[in-house]
Amino acid sequence: MIQRKEEIDKKYMFGPNLLTFDFRTNKYSREVLVDVATTDSMSSFIKSSLPHILNFYDITLITGGSGCFWLDSTRYQVRPNQLLFTTPGQIRRWYAKDLQAICFFFSAKFFLNAFNDPLLLHRLQYFHTKVGPGELLLNENDAELILGLLGDMQKELNRLQPDSQKILLASAYYLLLRLERFYIQSWGKTQVNYVDKRIGKFRQLLEKYYSTHHKVASYADMLAVTPGHLNYLCKRNLGCNASELVTSRIFTEAKIRLTHTNTLIETIAYDLGFENTSYFCRAFKKITGCTPSQYRKLHIEESYTDTY
């Protein structure tokens, strides 16, 4: 399951109520980097509006209940047969009534150690919720299929054998690829193969430097390619150009901070690499249709209307 850390995330400075959860590797008789559990069986699972962060990947299948779920700055209506995807570092809040769900969660090391493929998780589009939906609604048959797969994994975890690691790895790999197929079909996406490994490296660099490097040329230099070629690679593999990805990442972070913190807009602008607050506000309005202060007010009012 998960292990609770009573630490404040300094990045967002939300306050002492922002909890961070680490993956618990010693739950079973030996180290296991994957787990399956129902929400009712996890005493530390937060079902309230208390904001919190996971330091691991999580896929939650809703089986009952109503309400809503906030992931970073996006609000999702909770409903049965719905999948919700969380990546490490995202801020979560639940406003759910009678929530029933089963969770599949794992450390990135679970796959990296087995396949030695640092880009594996980059190919799964549902884990890139900063540029796509973080939810997927399944039909009854598909929901039963996923529920069955999770149930089988849960049984394996409860009776570990010498070959359990291989079985869990194969089951998890099949599950993630199945979900990728469902996600692509549901949202009209295109299969991502990452023919060129530099695309995966670009996304890693973007996650690290988005607040200090706003120009495509900066990332192109790091990758030893021209800006035009980087745009070509992104267009070919991701369906959008590099500048769109950079802009999306910057302003997604702005939305997160406006939604989850009381940080001054001037400070947010400076932290995200804008020396001029007026320019930040104009750019934000061009993208979202409203000013940062209007966006913050709207989302505060929206969160107050959520009920359990």
UniProtKB/TrEMBL annotation:
Domain HTH araC/xylS-type: 200-298
Domain of life: Bacteria
Keywords for this protein: Activator, DNA-binding, Transcription, Transcription regulation
Record-level Gene Ontology MF annotations: DNA-binding transcription factor activity; sequence-specific DNA binding
Entries under Pfam families matching the protein: AraC_binding, HTH_18
InterPro entries tied to this protein: AraC-bd, Homeodomain-like_sf, HTH-like, HTH_AraC, Tscrpt_reg_AraC-type_HTH
Protein name (record): AraC family transcriptional regulator
Lineage per the UniProt record: Bacteria, Pseudomonadati, Pseudomonadota, Gammaproteobacteria, Alteromonadales
